[in-house]
Amino acid sequence: MEVVEMLEIQKDKIEEENKLSSGERLVVLKDKSCRALVEKWLGNGVDLHLCSVVGIDNEDAIQVLYYFMDRKDNTTVAVAVNLDHEKPVTDTIGDLIGSSVYEGEATEMFGIEFTGNEIARVFLPENWVGGYPLRKSWKKEDYFDE
Amino acid sequence: MSKRDYTEFNLGPQHPALKEPETFRVVVEGERIVKAEAILGHTHRGIEKVAEQRDYNKALYLAERICGICSFAHNANFARAVEFVADVEVPERAQYLRVLVAELERLHSHMLWLGVLAHEIGFDTFYFLVWNDRELVMDALETLTGNRVNYGMNDIGGVRADLTPDIKGLLMRKLDELGPRLEKIKEIALKNKTVISRTKGVGVISNELARKTCVTGPTARSSGINWDLRRDQPYFAYGDLDFDVKVSTDGDVYSKITLRIEELFESMRIIQQVLEHLPEGRIKTDVRGKLDGSAVSRIEAPRGENFHYVDFRNSKEPYRMKVRAPTYANVVSSVEVLVGHYISDIPVIVAANDPCFSCTDRTLVIDRDTERYQILTAKELRKLSIETTKEEIM
């Protein structure tokens, strides 16, 4: 089964649907997790490739955008979940498909907790005390001397 | 087995076997690796954060500096993402010229990698031979763009430099010279006993592991994943050009050598077609003003799928820029396959995926005495550089 067919079946899980300027479908989920969706895809034999995980600070919410490709027909789809801005928590998909380090990067840069993924440091030093640098409210003066 | 039978050590961040600063924390039993972990981030420069304060014309040059080896791939990929948001049509001639530089970059990158791998297996004669021949490609890139690295070839909406008949003639002469030399390189790489004994059956990435860890590029293709963005989701002018995608199923270091060498010949084929069929016309469409929208661009860089995401919100500066370089996708698999191998295999297995840690990591100054962090402006960094240089001269 392919991603496009699967999305038709899982329509009830979609909050809204848009298109990126590059033409791909952007699907925003009702849930704060895409784990069930990915499990279903993999369980139905979708040959899935995860290109990247992008954290975005929308100021009223933290968004996690997963960008997938179906290797069978090269269809690409962006799946987004909107999380609470103060305490963004979602489920990991790192054990399902190679994304543990991508999630770890989103954790250290945005403070997103991926339940089930223990990686919290990818690029920043282990003793980093500078907060979450890719959040829009982040100011260097809050952490570092001029 | 008692705990004392295991030894843990750090390979890197500074180590003769590694060409870039990265740490591999390894646990060994005797000479045999039982656990391995990669520690990234030594060259993280916060480029994504810096880009949020630069308009797209300046961020274009920032993207080029993500990597010295595949600088064109990052530069072109960022330009393409911005062009999606700006909804502009890039002239056909510019698309062909982008292919030309991209394939020249693939040639020099694959040859650089082959030289590094030859060095890692102790075959330095081969290393010097390959790198000497690579100079033909570097000369071609310098003639075409003005630089050996960081070519500054792209602009948002097209390219900055055109191909004149003189430069075209010179490129064709360089390629004529390179062809027989690549044949010689291929003959040595495929038949030499040292190459075979140090790489065949070593560092096998199975098809299953490759799929689960979502590896890309030659690493994926050498593990049986028949996928190349140039063919499967054509961009620039690749849809007009004839070339084959090479695939191997062995997954070991040797298969990565054979595959990349085959890819060198395919790049030569592509360049030849571009030079023969380059369409006439403009090389740039102007892009001005604020942009609104988000886009993803993915291109087949020498090391694999290069991912750029840009998000503009009625602004010239990206609200968010995200880069996922191919090494970032490939590093997990190379660490997993270290287990069971010998310490001496580490450099070979790590190098086999053609890692670029500057791409993967993306300025922060740390005062060791006070352990305080400080972020410097360009002006402050320049001042610090001048002061430090003066102190050293004194």
Detailed description of the structure:
The complex is a heterodimer of chains A (146) and B (394). Chain A has 146 residues and is an alpha/beta fold. Chain A has one domain: NADH:ubiquinone oxidoreductase Nqo5 subunit (Beta Polymerase, domain 2, 2-Layer Sandwich), CATH 3.30.460.80. Chain A is built from three helices and seven strands. In chain A, the strands form two sheets. Chain A has a five-stranded mixed β-sheet. Chain A has a two-stranded parallel ribbon with strand order 6-7. Chain B folds into two domains: 71 residues, no CATH class; 301 residues, Orthogonal Bundle (Cytochrome-c3 Hydrogenase, chain B). Helices cover 49% and strands 15% of the residues of chain B. Chain B contains 15 helices and ten strands. The interface between A and B is large, with 39 and 42 residues.
Features:
heterodimer, A: 146 residues, alpha/beta, Beta Polymerase, domain 2, 5-stranded mixed β-sheet, two-stranded parallel sheet, 7 strands, elongated, B: alpha+beta, 3-stranded antiparallel β-sheet, 10 strands, 49% helix
Short synopsis of the structure:
The complex is a heterodimer of chains A (146) and B (394). By secondary structure, chain A is of the alpha/beta class. Chain A has helices spanning 3-9, 35-43, 100-110; strands at 14-19, 25-29, 48-57, 61-70, 75-84, 89-91, 113-115.
Question: What does the secondary structure layout of this molecule look like, with pairings?
Answer:
The complex is a heterodimer of chains A (146) and B (394).
Chain A: H1 3-9, E1 14-19, E2 25-29, H2 35-43, E3 48-57, E4 61-70, E5 75-84, E6 89-91, H3 100-110, E7 113-115
Parallel strand pairs in A: 2-5, 6-7
Antiparallel strand pairs in A: 1-2, 3-4, 4-5
Chain B: E1 6-11, E2 23-29, E3 32-39, H1 47-51, H2 56-64, H3 71-86, H4 92-120, H5 124-145, E4 154-155, E5 158-159, H6 165-191, H7 193-199, H8 207-212, H9 217-221, H10 229-232, H11 253-277, E6 291-301, E7 304-315, E8 320-324, H12 326-336, H13 346-352, H14 357-360, E9 365-367, E10 372-374, H15 378-393
Helix pairs in contact in B: 2-3, 4-5, 4-11, 4-13, 5-6, 6-11
